[in-house]
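Please predict the structure of the following assembly.
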Amino acid sequence: MSGVVRAEVSRRALARARRRVAWGDALGRLRRDRLALAGLAVLVLVALMALFAPWLVDDAGLDAVDSLDNPTWARPGGDFLLGTDHLGRSVAAQFVYGARVSLFVGLAATVLTVAIGTIVGIFAGFSGRWVDATLMRLTDWFLVIPFLPLAIVLASVLGRGIWNIVFVISVTSWPATARLVRAQVLTVKERLYVDRARALGASRAHVVRRHVLPNVTPLILASATLAVPISILTETTLAFLGLGDPTQPSWGKTLEEAFQAGAIGRNAWWYYLPAGLGIVTVVLAFTVFGRALEEILDPRLRER
Amino acid sequence: MSEHDAPIVSLRDVHVRFGRGASVRAVDGVDLEVRRGEVLALVGESGCGKTTLIRSIIGLEPVASGSIEVDGHAVTRDARSLRRLRRRVQMIFQDPTGALDPRHTIHEAVAEGLRIHRVPGDEAALVADALARAGLRPPERYVRRFPHELSGGQRQRVLIAAAMALDPAVLLADEPVASLDASIRGEVLALMRSFVDDHGVSIVAVTHDLGLAWNIADRVAVMYLGRIVEVGPTEEVLAAPQHPYTRALLSVVPETRRLEQQILHGETPDPSRIPAGCRFHPRCPVVASGEAARLGIEARCRGEDPTLTERAPGHTAACHL
Ligand SMILES: Nc1ncnc2c1ncn2[C@@H]1O[C@H](COP(=O)(O)OP(=O)(O)O)[C@@H](O)[C@H]1O
Ligand SMILES: [Mg+2]
């Protein structure tokens, strides 16, 4: 009895040790990829900034009423690191708090998109013809929903809020993920190693867990790291069109307000440049890191 | 017949069909027995149904009609009996590269079957032992590697190790050396032979190469267009082939040049249009040369499907000749 238990324990310990080694390998490879490391560093920095926003800047700088005494269109430097906008609000405060909303919307929409897309894709790829056909018909319907009209309708029906933006982005982008995942499941399903697993006595659940999911995950991760920047850009677009959450500062909303206030005409670059650069930098960082991640997760792409 | 003499695998009138309306008769009425502790070579041209036949033995292809028994248990679609079957029977594939999941280490590839069947014991030790027995020594050098870091021969050894780790009664090998360099084929075949001699496993080795059969098989079964047309002890089948198709196959093997070389004419066989009568008659040299007519059997060749009949003890052929 105790022998069995000990064997069980040592087996689990072994598996854990192996996993640790695999993770160590992955980290080692990442450490050698300069560009990916830079991307990761940027992401960590922005995430920290978003996380510790209240400690970094005074959120009174966001509020027009609290900012009544401030100078408007103040240039950077002096009392205000990044200057002030047309209402005298701190651009730095808007930038730091805006990172919060942009990152949150980007990540939340991606998680939702990837979760729905993966579940539907795996189900469709692994079920019989009937379920597959029904699910694919469903994705077709969602694929043809025009994005902007839906966003406008939802904004007017549900009100303009962060979650509505997350919802709009997810509802319109999960079908693409679902199709991608389904296609990959269909090809993995036909691989000889799946036949071998079945010949070894593997159940369908085992095949999905040990072969299909691991071989689909890199694709899911890659599509997720690309979905984050797309979601951030989408949030920017919606906010720029005035469909964003009016109570939350986001980079997109800053751009919209700068544009409306005529910052470009006044050449008030300090108003719109931080938000614009923030978006470009985060989007690039995600893309670079996503590429590297894909490579690290695929043993065939590694050189030895 | 004593328990020991009972065949480990027996197939009775097995049919496997593919395509629209099951029009492709890939396996079309196979009767075959595999004895305990023997190497049976299954030979025939590419496309004659060899792979499909052995896949049906392990339940990877559903049988349209007929029956397959392994060790007295019928092969069915039932999940529990399939699982039991897939411990007693193991298969290695023609393409070792495709048969290994590129994301699994060699350890995981070999341990997969042990985990599925919850084989008791220390997994690492069992894997190391299996690798060593398959000639991958020292095993520690391989366990953490990925398939793409190994050579083709090493990958096939990994698959053999994974299959033999479960201590099967039957090993189905689909062209086990076809994808390997000629220089290492002999070693892999010798390895398989050693499992028969040392552990009493039975092997069905599919090949389109009679030379390979000559090297390791105890018995040879010749397959043509979904049917077994000749079975017998290796020396007998190769030295005294009874079926004109076997003779034609043999005549192009370099080692057996003493037979007059026969190139088969006629269209390549198509399992969706199996000829009436003897399925070989459109290409049969005996029919084409007029010998069948002289012997007065040509009408039967064209109209009557021959069954396997005994030509010598343990040596059968399906021919009207
Ligand atoms: N999954 C399948 N679907 C349709 N036809 C198949 C399938 N597998 C095999 N076949 C057909 O069955 C016949 C026998 O194939 P196979 O068993 O692979 O022959 P062999 O292994 O002797 O070369 C071929 O005509 C092949 O095209
Ligand atoms: Mg084949």
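The pocket of adenosine-5'-diphosphate (ligand 1) is lined by residues B 18-19, 24, 26, 44, 46-52, 271 (CB under 6 Å). Chain A touches chain B at residues 4, 7, 10-11, 14, 18, 21, 191-193, 195-203, 206, 210-211, 214-215, 298-300, 304 (CB under 8 Å).
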